[in-house]
Amino acid sequence: MKFYAHTHPDYPNPEDAEKYWEPLFSEDCGTLKDGKCLQCENLDPDHGHLNKVAYLCNKFAAEMFPAGSEDRKLAAEWGRLAGLWHDLGKFAPEWQEYLKKKSDPHCDDTTGKEDHSTAGAKHSVNADPLFGHLLAYGIAAHHCGLLDTKTNGKSCQESRLNKNIKCFDDAPASLISLRVPEFLELIKKKLKKGDGLSTAFFTRFLFSCLVDADFLATEAFMNPKMTDNRNSIPLDVLKKIDELVVGKINSFGVPTCNDSVNLQRAKVVRDCTDSANETPGIFTLTVPTGGGKTLSSLHFALKHALKYGQKRIIYVVPFTSIIEQNAEVFRTILKPIESNGFTPLIEHHSSLSPDKETEQSRLATENWDAPIVITTAVQFFESLFAAKTSQCRKLHNIANAVVILDEAQSLPVNYISPCLHTLQELANCYNTTVVLCTATQPAIKYDANEFSIGIKNSREIIQNPKALFEALKRVEISCIGQQTDQELSNRIMQCEQALCIVNRRKHAQELFQQLPENSGRFHLSALMCPEHRSQVLKMVRECLSNKQSVKLISTQLIEAGVDVDFPVVYRALAGLDSIAQAAGRCNREGRQSTPGQVYVFDPEDQKAEAYFRETAQVAREVMGLHEDLLSQEAIHHYFDLYYYKQYKKWDEKEILSAFSIDPRLKHCPFRFNFRTAAENFRLIEDWKIPVIIPFDNSVEKLISDLQNEFKPLNRNLLRALQRYTVQVSPRLLRENSKSFEVLRDGQFYVLISMELNYSKEFGLILDEEHSCKQKLIT
Predict the structure, then answer these.
(1) Cα dist. 476→6, 288, 461, 568 in Å?
(2) Do 332 and 202 share a structural domain?
(3) How many CB atoms lie within 10 A of CB 737?
(4) Which residues, in sequence order, are CB contacts of 519 under 8 Å at separation 6+?
(5) What is the DSSP string of 599-645?
(6) DSSP H or E stretch at residue 274
(7) CA gyration radius, the chain
């Protein structure tokens, strides 16, 4: 009997089985002997599906570890076995009959779906009652996602293993007789210590290798055109990228002796070059805003990756606005090596414009198969604790890479423990170098007494951070106490050009209205769609450049890497990291003959979110103890106090306790609650719904396409619409439901009246939260 894995979607009738049916397993495959097989490598449609998945999974698992290491060899064996056993259930006569009926256009009896995943999981445990469970988690989950070990009344790993299924009687003996490999030495040590997180981490990464391999092998048979369109990465691509980045840095020329900013930027580059030779691990890159850390960190990462054989650079930032800004810089540099079949850089975030996306980059975001990846902290960390196959596919490509964590101080304190644990795990076990890159380095180093969850063995890239900060000091900070809105607006009006950042949208609106209409006033907040904000920022930059009057009132979103340069900045009291970010918008290029002025004030409006209240209180404690609020000592003191005061929140959702090992449970000591951890790990918990704003003529056509129910949705349409969305809470949406047109069975909400509900100054207007509603109408 011949066994098959898939039928091609173009399969016309049962007589053409040889052409349109993919074999399940090929006994004469070289993969079973030495791991090499040209048919597997080429994803030959006439070759066995299990063989091809085993080949790819072997390759992916090996690449997670350093070349030549024993763990690399062992990981490859684990990957190969996961691939060979993942579809053992397809040897069952019932499954083959199901596939035949499913493929026969004349047969209507295809209700239900045969379980083909459980068999391989059960066999793994039978083959090795201890370590076989680590294979079984991924095999059982390769379609449904990782499960909890045991739950009450829900689908779980234990219930899957207890299913009365024995589907591999007809499987070849060469498959069934394989043995579970020895466990990896690095993780075995942690297993002996009862380190459940580390063991679960390997299980999840092995699962990632399997689902990516399975998807790619299946795609090659079912949709070979898509396979042909995937990113074709040259072998020496990192070397070429490094040459382009070095060329860009050299193009700035040698700074003159009186050009203090560029002299310091050049020193940062030299320090990054020198430190790149150090062994992989965790580094800190402490550079003040405007010190050139974006290009310098990329320069370090490329030199380091080339020296230690790491595969890619992953740039992680907290906000999409920073992604777009950095990606534009990188994309310009990398343009010479782009081609129709290759994209050197992919952006993976929610607001990507379709005109910056290619077929290769779209497919590469599925598994981060590109030399440079730029993504958000939400995408990065939530993927590391994910359970779904779609989110986990990319994980194996995080291993053996350089991860640059930009604005490292933005990690939320209620997830700080699981975040730091995963970064340490990546560095200790998976040849991943982590760079914590920020102007306000958080105090996250290990301290047995005060910060036991901290990072161990980190190294600073900059030789003398204190001297660097003193040399690049371009602002003076003054604390001016409590200010009423009238007093604050009077101060702002005395400046030709000033930026004022406050903690609440309503406060920003009220302060804006205090300024005269002809004063060059502007406003920014997240109630304005991205396209609207971009237009405002363009006008603001033009005013700044032309020395015209400009007063910008903004919420904290402008601190998220927005490149503006004001001579005077006012900042409502908040954490020192926020104050430092605000200072980074003042005299940014150091072109003023005197220092820029940053004024920190206690606002009349005291209704800030809990986060700002907490951070402001800690900042108050630090202010009286340090003359320079931006000094390394003040920043370190601030984070010391902030983390210490919040110690009960370090793992507020108990993510780490979801992974434990109980040696008393001889049947299965691993208690891994993958699904529960994934559901609980949400860096952004304030869930909001995007609503579409008909802001200009460009979006009107997009909305028209949405309104046409017969027109299929496509990725480009959805990407383009993101430039015209504002995030709204479910409560606010319910209370203002009559203001929106609901399309596509509730998938999309479109604002009906721009005249009534959208202001050219403030953006979306919905309820009493917004003051002076009548005045805001355009």
Answers:
(1) 68, 14, 26, 10
(2) no
(3) 10
(4) 493, 549, 551
(5) EEEEES-----HHHHHHHHHHHHHHTT-S-TTSHHHHHHHHHHHHHH
(6) helix 260-275
(7) 28
What is the number of domains present in the chain? 4
User: Does the residue 637 lie in any domain?
Assistant: no
Measured N-to-C along each axis, helices 293-308 and 320-334 cross at an angle, to the nearest 10 degrees, of: 60
User: 207 and 392 in contact (C-beta within 8 Å)?
Assistant: yes
C-alpha angle 297/304/231, rounded to 5°? Answer: 85
**Any domain includes 655:** no
In which region does residue 292 sit, left (phi positive, over 0), alpha (psi from -120 to 50) or beta (all else)?
Answer: left
557, part of any domain: yes
Q: Which one, of 285, 319, 169, 299, lies nearest residue 242 by Cα?
A: 299
CA atoms within 13 A on the CB side of 610: 4
Q: Which domain holds residue 741?
A: 689-776
Distant-in-sequence, close-in-space partners of 136: CB < 8 Å, separation ≥ 6:
120, 121, 122, 124, 125, 157, 161
Comparing CA positions, the residue from 491, 523, 487, 518 lying closest to residue 504 is: 523
Number of neighbours of residue 742 by Cβ within 10 angstroms: 11
Quick check: helix, strand or coil at residue 271? helix
Same domain, 401 and 440: yes
Q: What is the DSSP letter of 514?
A: H
Q: Which residues of the chain have pLDDT under 50?
A: 110, 351-356, 768-778
On the 0-12 / 13-18 / 19+ scale of CB atoms within 10 A, 427 is buried
464: in domain: yes
Residues 593 and 625 in one domain: yes
Of 428, 446, 468, which one is at a domain's C-terminal end? 468
Pair (146, 258) in one structural domain? no
Which pLDDT belongs to residue 686?
65
Q: Which residues pair with 551 in a beta bridge?
A: 498, 521
> Could you give the 3-state DSSP secondary structure of residue 82?
helix
Q: Are residues 304 and 449 in the same domain?
A: yes
Q: What is the CATH number of the domain that holds 164?
A: 1.10.3210
Alpha-carbon span 740 to 766, nearest angstrom: 11
Final residue of a structural domain among 597, 629, 661: 629
Distances (CA, A) of 467 to 182, 458, 690: 51, 20, 45
**Rounded to 5°, angle at Cα 557 from 556 and 561:** 110
Contacts of 594 by beta carbon, 8 Å cutoff, 6+ apart? none
* 676, two tokens: 């529960």
